[in-house]
Amino acid sequence: MILFKNVHKEYPRTGYALQDVSFHLRKGEFTFVTGPSGAGKTTLVKLVTMEERPTAGMVRISGYASDKIKTREIPALRRRLGIVFQDFRLLKNRTARENVAFALEVTGASAEQINPKVLRTLAAVGLSDKADHLPSELSGGEQQRVAIARALVNDPFILLADEPTGNLDPKVALDILRVFKDINLRGMAVLLVTHDRTLLGEHPRARIIELDQGRIVRDTANGGAAG
Amino acid sequence: MAYTSREAFFAFRRSPLLTALSIATIAFALYTLSVFGLVWTNIDRVLSDVEERVEVIAYLVDGTDPTETSALMREVAAYPEVDSIAYLSKEDALARARAELSDYSALYEDLESNPLPASVEIALKAGYRDAADVADVATRIARFAFVEDIKYGEDWVQKLDFLQNLSLFLGLVVGGVFAVIAFVAIGATINIVLISREDEIAIMKMVGATRSFIARPLVIEGFIKGVLGAVMALVLLTFTYSLLEQRVVSLSFYSPLQVAGGILLGGALGAVASIMTLRRHLATW
After folding, report:
1. Could you tell me whether strands B147-151 and B55-60 are parallel, antiparallel, or unpaired per DSSP bridges?
2. CB–CB of A75 and B200 under 8 A?
3. What is the tens place of the pLDDT at every residue in A60-118?
4. Which class is B55-152 in CATH?
5. Contacts of A99 (CB under 8 A, 6+ apart)
6. Do B207 and A78 touch (CB under 8 A)?
7. Mutate which of A48, A78, A117, A146 to disrupt the B interface (most B C-beta within 10 Å)?
8. Looking at the partner chain, which of B3, B200, B209 has a beta carbon nearest the beta carbon of A75?
9. Residue ranges of chain B that CATH labels 3.30.70.3040
């Protein structure tokens, strides 16, 4: 699944973003990655998407190792990841349905497959009735649901969310967390990066990996000790 | 496929001015190259016509001993450059002058003595007919003491040689400059497209679109621009050609195969310019 083995990441100008980070995410697991800003959370996400490679150590995502993967293999890896961001990143001139369909269109899905799949996925995030709305006609929470649907539509093995509730008010944030929990209940792994500690309390059974200054200071999978 | 063809025409709408500039510069690049290419082939054709008639004529001093003349002919005939050699006596020369210049035959009829010299006419083999070889053979023959004068088409063979090289050089330089401008203009159009589609491309990378999927519409667009530029060049060239054809002697034009090749060359130019710009932009993933 997802394996970090003694991962160090150093940037030329800002120095170490991650130091000696090791963990192993299993199939179907719900994991929070938390910590203050600057702790290395975003760097961790970029290492999972292979936008960045570790300075030392190794990252392995579903059979792709960071030291062996070729640039042309990265699209295949990305299709196995569902990625959600804080700022939704929807295309403003396309409806909810078209935004979700976009992920299928650009990865070479056939035209007949696209429509039923898109409608099914929008239903899974509770947005069937807003399929033909533009992002500007949707609330923040609804826009994030569209983004989640887009992340899910390619059947990834994990949903990777970087501060997905960062732009939402607390009540809506909990709604969105509920969407992630629902998806996880159907067997999909979730890696949710957040600095919002109140979310953690809403899902007590989830695994928590806490980062501070680039190091893991708590990992509940290891009885709460640093990994 | 729907995505690719829809996107390929995006830039035409997005930046019509730069698109027009790209097409025009490709057109000028190919036009310049093809005009000078046409000059080159036509000079080449004239030269090969001329070259078939290229001969060196050695005029002999009056009263040259026939044994000396035949010695010269044996020696010169042995030169590797020489195809054939013929002796023209004073009488033959006068007869030929009378025949060729019949309008002036009165002039020759009154002559008491024959003013024309005997000569040896030397034709050269194909491959030895350029200016340098002709001059070389002439110099060697000039060393015989009884050779009074030597004539060969040195001046205009050299001039045509020079013109041909000049047209090749100018075509490559001017055409090359336009080609570079075309590359820059195409690159700039693609930059604009990439910047205006930054969000979309970021999402495509995120959801796992391949590099070739993102690049394909832009490469196709570059190819279309190149082909349009080449067609424009062809129109300009045809116009130029018919103007020259009316005023100057008959000229040869490119064969249909060469025209097709030129249009493909335009397309390739546009596609390569696109690929080079995209390489820089889509290097990181």
Report:
1. antiparallel
2. no
3. 999 999 999 998 899 999 999 999 999 999 999 999 999 999 999 999 899 899 999 99
4. alpha beta
5. A90, A91, A135, A146, A147, A150
6. yes
7. A78
8. B209
9. 55-152
